[in-house]
Amino acid sequence: MAHEEEDWFHGLLPREDLAILLRNPGDYLLRISQVKPTEERKLILSLAYINDKKSALSDVAGHSAGLKRNTAPPPQQPPPPPPHHPPGGLSGEARDGIKRRKHKKRAGGSMEGGRADRPRPPAQPDATATTMAGANTTTAAVPTVIRNLTTTATTATTLNTVHTQMEEPRVALGHYIIVKEKDPPNHYTIDNTLKGETVRDLVENYRTRRIPLKKEVPNTLLVTPVTRAPWELRHEHVKTETKLGEGAFGDVYSGKLKMHDGAEIEVAVKLAHSQAMDKEKIKELMKEARLMRNFAHPNVVRIYGVAVEKEPLMIVMELVDGNALDKFLKLNGDKLERVDKLAMILDAAWGIEYLHHKKIIHRDIASRNCLVANSLFGRLVKISDFGLSREGDEYCLKKARKIAIKWLSPETLTTFIFTRRSDVWAYGVLIWEIYANGEEPYPGVSVPASKQMVLSGQRPVFPEGTPPEVVSLVTADIWEVNVEKRITMTAIALKLEALTQRSPPDQQNSVRKCAATAPSPANGPLHPAHPVPHQQLRQAPTKFLPNPPHPEKNARHKATRAPKQPANPAIANSGHRHK
């Protein structure tokens, strides 16, 4: 059997997704990764082990058992359909977010060495991690903290604090390159200690003979092969049909997903461009999918899973039968009643409030990134496109990127920092779009000129017929320049519920209960982002934000300070023109 057919082969799954799978000492899986940008992809054997040279080998139970740990769901249990929007209806618990910080790699550190805190068993990371064999064997400090299927870096100081507080086994992840000999008999090996005619033979030799993958660390023993998780889909179970949209990294199609019981359901499939999929782009795509795995809300597009065993990579999502909100508004906006548009802005508020509860900063709230679904309970607006979303309290743009300037808050234009409160500002622009029937904000104004308008206090003027309560909410509370005083999404949703007399989904009650019992900093935390629906891939008018200020200076920037033009303009003259 070829190694690609093994059920513990996980294809192009990146290292950031491993900690949720390799939970116990001795757990291992096979995958493919690009060790260096200039090299071809290599076979990687990833292993969880107790990183303690003094521990006895008995710390890893059942060395010779070799029983697979099945992470797949039982047969005849397809994933539940996307939740609809009854008078109430959400589910899900709050998950703590954590700020991402970069770490400097130690001299001689490897590309693939890593370690992780993981939910099960309760274990804390060690300061070192095994590197790949096949290169110089060194150690690297590349910590990873797991929070609900997402990974995020934390500082060494935090890790040391955790070690002090919790006296538990130190679990690390090791990553080992498997190579095929160039000379006959062309066996597979890691470091020439053991060999095998096939990858399976090599792995079985290590497992049954209880030979450590790293000689100086006796606990690097293979015990349990970990099979694919429920969200790791097979390419053969996904069919693509009609093209719905396209973007920089992939196209979106309608399609079918074969379930465990043989039934097929309609889905949307984001198909990545193979020629664009280097290691970093795979990580970005999987980051989006990782965020989406946490979502279960009627006003947020949900994900079924990813197919990463080979190229092209696929993200499989619920198929929304309507159109992108901006297109829908241009076609039908003048036919909508007052109650219809109020329902739309409240739907969007519920979805964004849920994301913020999950510690997600969406970073691209706009009508083009919302979908209109036709459900049993009527028309429904869903938040989508999480390609720019980040988990944490704030995100600082560190390099030039295309960004939709007309939806950015004044503090983001001057500091390049995104928070939940900058999402709130963009939501205000979304409300304006809904009442302007999908028209672009600052119509007829160039991107650089619109930026100056935002910084000078000029705002889009609402069309006649916009409810005065909505105009007041947006202009006085949502477009508040002082970030500390800007209203939260929960407060917005509560005001709109009172205005419309609509009851929130069940999840909202859970969201607000957690928010009421948790500390609430001025710029409160956020959670991960996720969707990338089909119609989403339509691009917004964008410009580059070049040479952002130093992150430390950004962090010290006071949100209450009057917006000030940065030394380098926030918008460069790229070839992209606003229409």
TrEMBL record:
Could you tell me where the Pro residues compositional bias lies?
72-86
One Pfam family from the record? PK_Tyr_Ser-Thr
Protein kinase domain: from which residue to which, for each copy? 238-499
Kindly list the positions annotated as binding ATP.
Answer: 270
Record's compositionally biased regions (Low complexity) = 125-139
**Which EC numbers characterise this protein's activity in its record?**
2.7.10.2
Q: What class of enzyme is it?
A: transferase
What UniProt keywords are attached to this protein's entry? Answer: ATP-binding, Kinase, Nucleotide-binding, SH2 domain, Transferase, Tyrosine-protein kinase
Where are the annotated segments for Disordered? 60-139, 502-579
Catalytic activity, as annotated: L-tyrosyl-[protein] + ATP = O-phospho-L-tyrosyl-[protein] + ADP + H(+)
Q: Does the keyword Ubl conjugation apply?
A: no
MF (Gene Ontology) = ATP binding; non-membrane spanning protein tyrosine kinase activity
- Lineage: superkingdom: Eukaryota
Q: Where is the composition biased (Polar residues)?
A: 502-511
| Residue ranges, compositional bias (Basic residues) | 98-107
Q: Where is the SH2 domain?
A: 8-226
- Annotated coiled-coil positions are none
Q: Does the entry feature the keyword Transmembrane, yes or no?
A: no
UniProt lists the family membership as follows: Belongs to the protein kinase superfamily. Tyr protein kinase family.
Q: Which PANTHER family match?
A: TYROSINE-PROTEIN KINASE (PTHR24418)
Q: What is this protein called?
A: Tyrosine-protein kinase
